[in-house]
Design brief:
- By secondary structure, the protein is mostly beta strands.
- The chain contains seven helices and 62 strands.
- It has a five-stranded parallel sheet.
- Strand 31 and strand 32 form a beta hairpin.
């Protein structure tokens, strides 16, 4: 007999949350809600559950039980009140049972809030110690040491979540009623002080890219209950289903709510419109399919019953007469929507079905299974499914097909799988046409666009991505995205718009016309522009799309495409990225740093000679530092004005320096001193001094010939900045240094005296780019707050600011300082002519 669904279950085979925070009420609860939880959710991109998200009501116990059941990791906030709370101890005991069941001892990551006698079972765990910040309401939450601990903890949590075992249906349940006795034995924390470890910081996180549109604000959506189903009823009406059984519809033109009904007892898993009628179909974990009439309100017409487990997907034939459903009971059933009841005996499946798509002809449908197979079922022979396609298993694991779509003409199909791939199929030839790789999570939903030339996909990695079918390239990753799984995407048809819905409870409306307005029309790169450098009348750009390009400043015209990164052989879900670029003042040579660990030199004179038909006797490219087997991103590169010295900043904490002697490059010399990854590097005009900025929040000055360094520190500070240093620059005269940081500040330093001069404040987000004007009197900065600012370095005041539509990641001053160029997260380059303004400032200064 098939197991019955448990109350509160929604995803029978998956997680809802990465982290479940367990804490007692009272003062500690305030600390969690006002300090710890906001800080962690800022640093950690995965979905987090805390009991403050539960709506008032009498079912809080079952909500806690369900949330813990579908969470990967438990974070207990350990304090005196924790061990005194029956519920906290029960939550801890429940996760300990899961660890024993799985034989996995890393599902509990405790933090210490205050002195407490801890359960013996946690004696050998690593803890993050927050005891010196037990309150955080008097300004201590701004302490950089606390920020460092919070970020360290968030990154450690991310690492644990990635390694969490697959979800299982036999996980132990938290009891709804608790006994007064606890099975966990307290112990004295003072006896194991030496055992308190600290998590090491893990791989750096970077923001997502490509801002396109805005969130669609719809009244009546409960964010805490997630969106588990979505359908477009007609061009103006959107219908949503929520994890607690509510069904709500809106008018997309006015934003007004039309209907709301408690349609099912448990989560709604799918919704389908019935063509030609004002009716809609809903399937639920409560094992029923319900037909609704859209009158003045939602009116229940019919209940279709027969499945023994929760419904996973429903679909309707184009004529509206027949419905198909798949369920956790491993059957496919067909239903007569006109008269009610089943059309035939259920189709018993050898492999569980998880996805469903109706062919536009209405003659057959497709379903995808947990074994990676896609089968075709014709309505005239329902009990004879044909094996249409087979993804096969990935790394000896089941490769579940969780998403299917068929294009409008019925010739091609899309499938998305648990191995993160999207596959394009020819339905007539029954063969693979193309594979799209780039997502880092299970593909939950995908769609052909209206013109069938592009694909839009949503994943458990919380991103929505756009793909070009002809080239197979990823066009963009939509930003800002969702904070949980992207469960549904619907094309609105008109104006190439889509709507996305997630378990985070948010709906987002996206206009894709910008991304599909033609091949690169109006865009410099396909992804964020992370590096810019200027010389003479040229600008060189480096982008996460893997390209290095050279542009003419005057007309913004692309001159050369220097480099196009090949697919990364060590990581099939990623292409190489170009992270930074530098150029000599005479525009003779450019240097680029790459995510594969490589440093490359480009002979721009050679390329100019080839373009004009002159003889080619220069090498166009020199691989100064080859790609490494162990990938170490090169975050920054710099070149001395005479092209004799090159330096690179790497994720492995090392600054490398090369010197050209004759026609050969000697080195690298390794400069080791930073405690964490180095983000940026700059070289003085004579090549004797190197400046670097790193994740350890320090700016270091290196005397290249003596191989020693010194940290620049403001008065009474232990680090140069309160957060990671993202960019540095040396003034043309070699007397000053600018450093930009995640703490939103830009600092000006006296390089000769090695002291702090002033802070340039005004940005509201990370500052990722900084550059001096050629006269050294002005500077420009770029930030993720979408603003570019021009500064007077004599008065430390802002001269002007410019705002764009997307976060800015890089900037430089070109054409002798008369033009500012900045690159944004969407791949666009922005130009500002500041010549008249700066000429006026220069005249005022001399007078």
């Amino acid at each position: 007999m098939a197991a019955q669904p448990r109350e509160g279950d929604f995803a029978e085979d998956g997680y809802w949350y990465d982290v479940f925070i367990s804490y007692p009420r009272g003062a500690v609860g305030r600390w969690v809600k006002e300090l710890f939880l906001p800080s962690i959710t800022d640093c950690f991109s995965g979905p987090v559950f805390a009991d403050s998200f539960i709506q008032p009501g009498k079912k809080w116990r079952s909500e806690l039980r369900t949330a813990l059941l579908h969470s990967k990791v438990l974070v207990p906030v350990l304090c005196g009140g924790f061990t005194a709370s029956d519920w906290c101890m029960a939550e801890l005991g429940n996760m300990l049972q899961r660890e024993r069941l799985l034989g996995h001892g890393s599902l509990i990551v405790p933090i210490l809030h205050s002195e407490v006698k801890l359960p013996q079972e946690l004696g050998d765990r690593q803890f993050e110690d927050f005891r010196q910040w037990p309150r955080g309401f008097d300004g201590t939450h701004l302490d950089p040491r606390l920020l460092t601990s919070l970020k360290s903890f968030a990154r450690a949590i991310g690492k644990v979540c990635v390694r969490a075992p697959a979800w299982r249906s036999d996980f132990p349940l938290l009891p709804l009623e608790l006994s007064t006795e606890s099975s966990l034995t307290p112990w004295d924390a003072g006896q194991s002080e030496k055992g308190l470890g600290r998590f090491l910081r893990t791989h750096r996180f970077r923001p997502r890219s490509k801002p396109l549109d805005k969130q669609l604000a719809l009244a009546g959506v409960d964010p805490g209950r997630g969106i588990s189903a979505m359908a477009l009823i007609n061009p103006d009406t959107l219908m949503l289903g929520q994890a607690k059984g509510a069904m709500i519809s809106w008018n997309l033109q006015t934003g007004a709510r039309l209907y709301r009904a408690d349609a099912h007892r448990l989560a709604i898993t799918d919704i389908a419109a019935i063509p030609g009628e004002r009716k809609v179909l809903s399937g639920s974990v409560d094992r029923t399919i319900r037909v609704w009439e859209l009158d003045d309100n939602l009116r229940l017409v019919r209940v279709l019953e027969g499945h023994r487990r929760g419904i996973r997907r429903v679909a309707v034939t184009p004529d509206g007469s027949t419905a198909v459903s798949i369920s956790g009971d491993d059957t496919v059933r067909t239903w007569n929507l006109r008269e009610g009841g089943e059309l035939s005996k259920p189709l018993e499946l050898a492999d569980p079905a998880y996805s469903l798509a109706m062919h536009p002809s209405g003659d057959y449908f497709l379903y995808g299974s947990s074994k990676g197979t896609i089968r075709l079922v014709r309505f005239d022979c329902l009990n004879e499914p044909e094996l249409l396609m087979d993804h096969g298993n990935s790394a000896q694991r089941e490769n579940t097909v969780l998403a299917l779509d068929i294009c409008e003409d019925g010739s091609r199909a899309l499938s998305g799988t648990s191995d993160h791939r999207i596959v394009l199929w020819d339905l007539r030839e029954r063969k693979i046409l193309k594979t799209f790789e780039g997502h880092r999570g299970i593909i939950r939903t995908l769609r052909f666009t209206e013109d069938a030339r592009s694909i839009v996909s949503g994943s458990a990695d919380m991103t929505i991505r756009l793909w070009d079918i002809e080239s197979g390239e990823e066009l963009a990753s939509l930003y800002p995205g969702h904070s949980s799984w992207v469960n549904f995407i619907i094309s609105l048809g008109d104006e190439n718009r889509i709507v996305s819905a997630s378990f985070d409870g948010c709906i987002r409306l996206w206009n894709l016309s910008r991304a599909f307005s033609g091949p690169n029309e109006g865009r410099s790169h396909l992804k964020r522009i992370r590096g810019l450098a200027a010389a003479e009348d040229l600008v060189v750009s480096a982008s996460f799309d893997g390209r290095v390009k050279v542009w003419e400043v005057a007309g913004g015209k692309e001159i050369f495409d220097l480099y196009d990164a090949p697919a990364d052989e060590t990581d099939r879900f990623s292409r190489g990225q170009v992270i930074d670029v530098a150029v000599t003042p005479d525009a003779g040579y450019a240097v680029s740093g790459h995510s594969d660990g490589g440093v490359r030199i480009w002979n721009l004179r050679y390329l100019s000679a080839v373009a004009t038909g002159a003889s080619d006797f220069f090498k166009p490219e020199t691989v100064l530092w080859p790609p490494e087997t162990k990938r170490r991103d090169v975050f920054g590169v710099a070149v001395s004005p005479d092209g004799r010295i090159i330096a690179s900043a790497s994720e492995d904490k090392i600054v490398r320096v090369w010197e050209r002697v004759g026609d050969q490059w000697q080195g690298p010399i390794r400069l080791a001193g930073h405690e964490e990854g180095v983000n940026s590097v700059a070289v003085s005009e004579d090549g004797s001094t190197i400046v670097s900025g790193a994740d350890d929040r320090n700016v270091r000055i290196w005397e290249r010939l003596r191989m020693r360094s010194e940290v620049l520190l403001p008065a009474d500070e232990r680090t140069s900045h309160h957060d990671e240093v993202l960019d540095v620059a040396i003034s043309p005269d070699g007397n000053h240094v600018l450093s930009a940081s995640k703490d939103t500040s830009v600092k000006l330093w006296d390089l000769k005296r090695k002291r702090h001069i002033a802070d340039l404040r005004g940005h509201g987000g990370w500052v990722l780019g900084v550059a001096f004007h050629p006269n050294g009197l002005w500077a420009v900065t770029a930030s993720v707050d979408r603003q570019l600012k021009l500064w007077n370095l004599r008065t430390f005041a802002e001269i002007a600011h410019y705002e764009v539509d997307a976060p800015l990641f890089s900037c430089t001053m070109a054409d002798g300082g008369k033009v500012i160029v900045a690159g944004d997260s969407a791949g666009y380059m922005h130009y500002w002519d500041t010549g008249p303004l700066l000429e006026k400032l220069e005249w005022t200064r001399t007078v």
